[in-house]
Each structure stands twice: as structure tokens, then as C-alpha cells.
């Protein structure tokens, strides 16, 4: 009986991985045509400055809707785009489109805010990354002083002299660098000390069980202090509740992002959001 169960489990596992492989192949095929077929779009999630009680900026997040596959999550297709090299044209599209959106927001007369764009380690590793970014800035009229690149720890992993040179060059343009998904990768203290990174963006997984595990509070508190001691700003992502917000206010976290304040918005709703929400935290409601 137990042997049988074991066999069934193996069969289930095989079916499951076959299904996974088929899906990956399907995604790969569809992804190759997605740009030409205009299947991508962008949404923008607000980042709130707790110290200034106002919108700090928005992060561009890629969306893909395919006729056969439906809506596919970036966590599923970005790794495939990276494996196939499609990340380069897709990444350039994201950069160009989000910069165009920023220029349109800026023309609508609202106070300028930062645009954050996720950059894959593979894009960043390309020798011509800085030049192609510069070309997009020139073409779109995006002000580099309002651009922030979110790079994950793994882009820094292959920590070479060229990484530091690129970051320094970008920094000289006025572009901000934030270290995305901080805490999940392998950045060493040496990297944190030597790389010109201005913002630590603590991964959402750290807030999820903040109150269920005593040690978690100590860890997140230490991450915030580490960032501050290195002269960086700290952002907590995935904030969903007022309890979490209150805790972060107490710990002097600089920025937060998450469903508590806003889900990702369509381009046209960003200006509405900016005009309708003038303050985010009503002091007195929260204890901080
Ligand atoms: P990320 O850059 O860490 O983005 C945060 C993700 O968390 C987004 O998922 C966002 O929608 C989600 N999120 C934000 N607030 C909350 C919250 O309060 N609760 C929960 N449960 N989730 C929240 P999304 O849009 O599915 O993106 C997933 C990941 O895909 C991103 O993680 C990023 O690594 C990657 N990605 C998205 N767009 C791009 C892109 O244009 N280029 C590259 N290279 N990667 C991208
Ligand atoms: Mg990000
Ligand atoms: Mg992140
Ligand atoms: Mg993340």
C-alpha cells in the first residue's frame, strides 16, 4: 500500500513537472512575440515618504496579457525573459514607456516625483547599459534627477570593478540606485559599504511575519539601522496593515510601499492619486 502511494506521488510529481515544462515552453514562444503584439503594459505603485508624509514616487511594474495564456505574472515570465535574452528588448521597452509616462505626468503640472524602474541583473551587466539608458533619457526627455533604478542584490553579486564604475556614472547623472529585495540575496557588508547605493528596499517577506516571530522584529529593526548607519534611506515594501505602518514609523523607516496605501495604478490614475491624496498619515490616528 505504501509503495503504491509512493508511486502515485512520483507520478503526480512527474505530471506536475511536465506541466511546468510545457508552460515554460508556451510562455517562451508567446513572449518572443509579445512586444510586437503590444501585449505589455505598465502599472505604477506609489512609494510614500513617512518623514515628509507625501508621495515620494512610483515604481513601474510590468504587466503581460496574452490571448492564450491570459495574465502572466512577472515573477513567472521575467526569469524566462532572462534565460532567452528577451529581457533586453523588454527592459528597454519598460524604460522608454515609463519615462514617457513620467514626462506626461510632469506636463500635467503636478509636483515632480521619482520614477523607479526595475532593472534585471542581465541588463545591468551589459557593457552598453549606461549608453542605452542615456539614449532613452535623451529621447524621452526624462529628467535623470527623478529616475531611480531598482537593482537586486544578485546584480551586485558578480561584483566587479565595472559594476562600481557603472553605478558611479549613473550616480553622477543624478540617478538614484536602490537595492531591491534586500535581505533575500547575498550582498556582503563590503559591497554595502563600497557600492554607491542610496536606498535599501527590504523584501516583502520580512514584513509578512513581523509580529508572529519576536526575532523578526529584531532583524527588521537591525536592517533599518544598518541602512541608516551607512547613510542610506530605507524602504519597506509590502506594507498592508496599520499595525505594520505604526511599527515602521516607530523604527524611523523612511519610505513604505504596499497595498495599505495603494495598489499599483494605471498611468492615468497616478495623477488622480497625486491630486486627491495630499497626506498619507493622519497623526493621532497612529500612535507614532
Ligand atoms: P518587486 O520589484 O520587489 O516588486 C514588488 C512586488 O510586490 C510587485 O509584484 C507588487 O505588485 C507587489 N506588492 C506591492 N505591494 C504589495 C503588498 O502590499 N502586498 C503584496 N502581497 N504584494 C505587494 P509584481 O508586480 O507581480 O512584480 C513581481 C516582481 O517582478 C517584481 O518584484 C520585480 O522583481 C519583477 N518585475 C516587475 N516588473 C519588472 C520590470 O519591468 N523589469 C524587471 N526586470 N522586473 C520586473
Ligand atoms: Mg522593485
Ligand atoms: Mg522588491
Ligand atoms: Mg520583491
Automatic annotation (TrEMBL):
Superkingdom of the source species: Bacteria
Limits of the EAL domain: 24-278
Protein name: Diguanylate cyclase
Entire protein: shown range: 498 to 785 of 785
Amino acid at each position: 500500500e505504501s509503495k503504491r502511494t509512493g508511486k502515485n506521488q512520483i507520478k503526480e510529481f512527474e505530471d506536475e513537472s511536465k506541466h511546468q515544462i510545457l508552460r515554460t515552453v508556451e510562455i517562451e514562444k508567446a513572449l518572443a512575440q509579445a512586444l510586437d503584439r503590444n501585449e505589455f503594459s505598465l502599472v505604477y505603485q506609489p512609494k510614500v515618504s513617512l518623514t515628509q508624509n507625501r508621495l515620494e514616487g512610483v515604481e513601474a511594474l510590468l504587466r503581460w496579457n496574452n490571448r492564450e495564456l491570459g495574465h502572466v505574472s512577472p515573477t513567472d515570465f521575467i526569469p524566462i525573459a532572462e534565460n532567452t535574452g528577451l529581457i533586453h528588448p523588454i527592459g528597454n521597452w519598460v524604460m522608454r514607456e515609463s519615462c514617457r509616462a513620467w514626462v506626461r505626468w510632469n506636463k500635467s503640472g503636478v509636483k515632480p516625483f521619482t520614477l523607479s524602474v526595475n532593472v534585471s541583473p542581465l541588463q545591468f551587466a551589459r557593457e552598453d547599459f549606461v549608453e542605452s539608458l542615456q539614449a532613452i533619457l535623451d529621447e524621452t526627455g526624462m529628467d535623470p534627477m527623478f529616475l531611480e533604478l531598482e537593482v537586486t542584490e544578485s546584480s551586485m553579486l558578480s561584483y566587479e570593478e565595472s559594476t562600481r564604475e557603472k553605478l558611479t556614472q549613473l550616480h553622477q547623472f543624478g540617478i538614484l540606485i536602490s537595492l531591491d529585495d534586500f535581505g533575500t540575496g547575498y550582498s556582503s557588508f563590503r559591497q554595502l559599504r563600497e557600492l554607491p547605493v542610496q536606498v535599501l528596499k527590504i523584501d516583502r517577506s520580512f514584513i509578512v511575519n513581523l509580529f508572529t516571530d519576536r526575532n523578526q522584529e529584531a532583524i527588521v529593526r537591525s536592517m533599518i539601522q544598518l541602512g541608516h548607519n551607512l547613510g542610506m534611506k530605507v524602504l519597506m515594501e509590502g506594507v498592508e496593515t496599520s499595525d505594520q505602518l505604526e511599527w515602521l514609523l516607530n523604527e524611523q523607516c523612511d519610505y513604505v510601499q504596499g497595498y495599505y496605501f495603494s495598489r499599483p495604478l494605471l498611468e492615468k490614475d497616478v495623477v488622480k492619486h497625486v491630486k486627491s491624496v495630499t497626506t498619507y498619515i493622519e497623526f493621532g490616528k497612529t500612535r507614532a
